[in-house]
């Protein structure tokens, strides 16, 4: 009887070195999310066990420049010595080795305590020491010193990424505040003027417009979250256009076409409405017969493509180039601001694309990934 071939089975999972490398990378990946929140007591307590596993020493501690943040391992009666060790080590700069005589056991456990020496490595962010990694053991071997130093460098790198994330968030918040300051006076005065014109002639419409105005400003001036959904952003755009149509009447015509699949896509807060306002102000406001604004959102596989187009006066392409380059002296509501925020979040490949010429109208194209790291409404 013929024997069927035995199914192939994978029995070798790599060398010992391969498996050790995998374990190290996996352990580091467990510590990274907490450290990306910055050096705080909470992040230290959540990451210290994983760092301890990386080093394999009897105990480790994390501190800021003055206080113990977290301890893990044996010999916790030495935890009170951490602030003093940090202060002394930071005064000397660089990784420091602490000998047995500088680590007296407060509870008289010299014979059984595994903490007899320490390696203190600084945690550095942008050339600024913000804390220490302290590794404790029976003696400070050359290998332990090198391991502590390398892990401290890695921790410093994660903390530096946290600083960059915080800086980016602060910058984006500042840019949104600047955008609000730039947009709001012009829009508020015109909207209130349009609403006032209906108070006597059509009180019901005046009331409806006032409610739309309240909802629009509530959304525009909200204080939470740097991202929202495309659906929320477009809802705000609709409110804006209702208020502008009250002012322009039949001179302002709008077409809105949105694929349902992209409504839930997360987008930077106030990234579409400024483009629409720019179309109204610079495209149609000065046009004698008014004009047409077309807003389209398309599902293109991994991307969402949004187009805001007007058939108004158009712009000099050099003017737009200067706006996108950050020239603050030019008056194009929000274009440069939105372009800068999109590039900061998604990279330079996702900045605004503007097609325009004098007398030919303007089309602004936004291409956004449907899913991007750190982007969620």
TrEMBL record:
Keywords: Kinase, Transferase. SUPFAM superfamilies: ATPase domain of HSP90 chaperone/DNA topoisomerase II/histidine kinase (SSF55874). Its EC number is 2.7.13.3. It is an enzyme of class 2 (transferase). It comes from the Bacteria. GO terms for molecular function: protein histidine kinase activity. Signal peptide: none annotated. Residues 267-372 form the Histidine kinase/HSP90-like ATPase domain. This is Two-component system LytT family sensor kinase.
